[in-house]
Design a protein that fits this description.
Order of helices and strands: HHHHHHHHHHHHHHH
Structural class: mainly alpha
Radius of gyration: 32 Å
Number of helices: 15
Distance between the termini: 64 Å
CATH superfamily of the largest domain: Tetratricopeptide repeat domain
Helix content: over 70%
Oligomer: single chain
Number of domains: 2
């Protein structure tokens, strides 16, 4: 018996590194209780799965299931084989069957959750088909979410477990992880902002653009007109400054002049669809303001949607 179990574990270990490199612990199968035919089919199925011949592996595991329909390990192996073969509906069916047989097994639950994820689903869609209220299953679910860094989902599960030692310990670990992530994000944001400030100091075009964008957000078109005119005079080849000045003119009831400036911006555009769309939209508004609906529609139709 020990030799057979050892062989099974060695095959699983080989499969572990060969095709998935995933952390996994296979349940032991006490094959001495089964016939030679069962053992032969089972080991051959593991071999075929290990070399990624999933169709053959599935057929062999199904033969084993016919010989012993109540063995949860066969359901577990079928779930994994179907999953690797991208047959997720069948994988889900056998994963549920395995978990119902052994609801406290972490690896059975993990396989089911991975199958659900591949289909864009969560455990909530099959909650009624498994012993979801089982405490150990809930603990395993929280651990799974923790390992996947889905901290909010893990905390929701832990909340339902009350003040148990397990829930308290894992909650502390999660909160610590969240704090470290937030600290890293804060540090990254500071570095980025500092870098942007330094870059802007060394780049007058970027300085003008930042200033204009801030005024645009505030809808301070009067000051935007002054700043964008100054920027355009200094850098007449920059299409953004033509757009900004034209927009400021249009928003301060100088639509005729705005049309002239905005149309000149088009001459300086080069492979910038986003800016082109903004210019066309503003030109459409300017032409509408001066009563030329034909030109307004013409520019409106130039806008490329979906960008």
């Amino acid at each position: 018996m020990k030799r057979l179990v050892s062989t099974y574990l060695m095959i699983c270990f080989f499969s572990f590194w060969t095709y998935a490199q995933e952390e996994e612990q296979s349940a032991e199968v006490f094959l001495e209780e089964y016939t030679d035919e069962f053992q032969e089919s089972f080991f051959e199925a593991l071999k075929q799965k290990g070399i990624q011949n999933y169709d053959r592996a599935i057929d062999l595991f199904l033969e084993c299931k016919k010989m012993n329909s109540s063995n949860s390990v066969i359901d577990y192996e079928l779930a994994k084989a179907y999953f690797l073969d991208k047959q997720y509906i069948q994988a889900q069916e056998f994963a549920i069957e395995a978990l119902n047989a052994k609801p406290m097994d972490f690896w059975y639950l993990e396989t089911l959750l991975r199958v659900l994820e591949k289909q864009g689903n969560t455990i909530s869609v099959i909650q009624q088909q498994i012993p979801f209220s089982n405490n150990k299953l809930q603990e395993n679910l929280a651990v799974f979410y923790f390992k996947k860094r889905k901290y909010e989902d893990a905390l929701k599960v832990l909340k339902g477990l009350g003040n148990s030692k397990f829930a308290t310990d894992l909650t502390l670990k999660i909160n610590d992880s969240i704090q470290r992530i937030n600290e890293k994000l804060s540090a990254t944001t500071i570095v980025k902002n500092t870098k942007k400030t330094v870059e802007n100091k060394d780049n007058p075009i970027a300085q003008y653009q930042s200033q204009i964008e801030e005024l645009l957000l505030k809808e301070d078109y009067k000051n935007m007109e002054v700043v964008s005119k100054e920027a355009l005079d200094s850098y007449p080849l920059q299409p953004y400054f033509h757009f900004a000045y034209g927009t400021a003119l249009n928003r301060t009831s100088k639509s005729t002049k705005a049309v002239e400036v905005l149309e000149s911006a088009i001459d300086y555009l080069f492979d910038d669809t986003s800016l082109a769309n903004k210019i066309y939209a503003e030109l459409s508004k300017a032409y509408t303001a001066i009563g030329n609906t034909s030109k307004a529609n013409e520019y409106l139709n130039k806008i490329k949607t979906g960008l």
